[in-house]
Amino acid sequence: LSRNAFGTISDAAATFFPRDQPTSRTAAGFPKDAFVVGVIAANKGVPSRKGFSQMLGAYKIFSERHPGESVLYIHTHVRQPDGEDLMLMCERLRIRLRIVHQYYYALGIDASSLADVMSSFDVFLNLAHGEGFGLPILDAMAMGIPVLTSDLGSMKEVSDDAAMLVDPRSVESIRAGLSELIANKDLRETLRAKGLERAKDF
Description:
The structure is a single chain. This protein is α/β, with parallel strands linked by helices. The protein is built from 9 helices and 6 strands, in the order H-E-H-E-H-E-H-H-E-H-E-H-E-H-H. The chain has helices at residues 21-28, 52-65, 86-93, 102-107, 111-118, 135-142, 153-159, 171-183, 185-200, and strands spanning 35-40, 70-75, 98-99, 123-126, 147-150, 164-166. Helix 2 (52-65) runs parallel beside helix 3 (86-93) and helix 6 crosses helix 9 (185-200). The radius of gyration is 15 Å and the shape is globular.
């Protein structure tokens, strides 16, 4: 079973493991005290199966209720001929976000560098309406990152009870999930521990 561009399931453990968050944040340039919401998803199709529209709508409301407390980072092509124009969406919603450098993303970013960035996340957000297997979720869990994901299909099955599940079609459901995670450190720690154990099953 292949893992897209990042290797195979058998070698994932050599790359996706818990790392020191303060060190990673300094290297990536994230504020050390920010609540970092990370998204890694291919931007293909209109409308996208990755739920970008609902995600950005939810983050807009979430960030207004928690002003100055969070950072949204998106790791994908933000403008694709065969995908969503994420920059235009953000401009219309007046959302500020961090995005992967588009030139280096197009060249290809190795898995170790991707994991370095991921280790800055406080929550990994995957709102796919359909996914082949849900490997990005397992990568995040293996790194000890709390996961907020879709309650549909393989995402629900892969996550089991080790992630917070939301309706990816509902802006309010996504917003509520983010709000609960930022407010509840104990919940984040519980999901972190459960995620590490769940990742071992694969």
